[in-house]
Specification:
Layout (H helix, E strand, L loop, with lengths): L1 E4 L5 H12 L9 H8 L11 E5 L2 E14 L4 E12 L8 H15 L4 E5 L2 H4 L5 E2 L5 E3 L11 E5 L8 E4 L8 H8 L18
Parallel strand pairs: 4-5, 7-9
Antiparallel strand pairs: 1-2, 2-3, 3-4, 3-9, 5-8, 6-8
Helix pairs in contact: 1-2
Length: 202
Amino acid sequence: MKIRLENENDYDEVEKLVRDSFWNIYRPGAFEHYIVHELRKDKSFIRNLAYVIEDNGQIIGHINYSKGFLDTGDEKTDAVILGPVAIHKDYQKHGLGSELIEYTLNLAEKEDIPYIFVVGDENYYHRFGFESASKYNLYLEGTDSSDECPFFMIKIFDESKLKKGIFHNPDIFNVNEKDVDEFDKQFEYKEKKVLDSQLKEL
């Protein structure tokens, strides 16, 4: 089992992995695999932080980073966000996601990235040193800055580079459902299901 940089030969396998990992988890169906597909062609994509975990020639894990921007009111500066990250369902609960995240966060720090945002489960990401971004007067576009937003977090490598403001995801994250449905036609059919465990506000 090894962690390595993603290459073009991995693209189809990675997209299938991401699709299977997210299908019906947060919403009926998934769009994370479409984001991964489109991101590779986008200027926001950080290619040298796109990594996979390979086991006996099979890709069982994948992670992406990309650049959104932080609007401080005076200026707009690049800001990095982690995700999507996916682990094959047969390999989950074995610490492989943590290994992949820690490995790439260490690379990001070496590349002098001052901080990284993530949107996700705070109970999971706290173990990697992520904190609530609102603690630093940093908020996610579209959320109420007067409310605590625990799922929007930041890991800081260089606090001297930090400024308060509003973080905007890369435009590529704003997907069109019809485009996703069209993209999905190249994959094996999977039924979209509405589940009680899914996010209620989409």
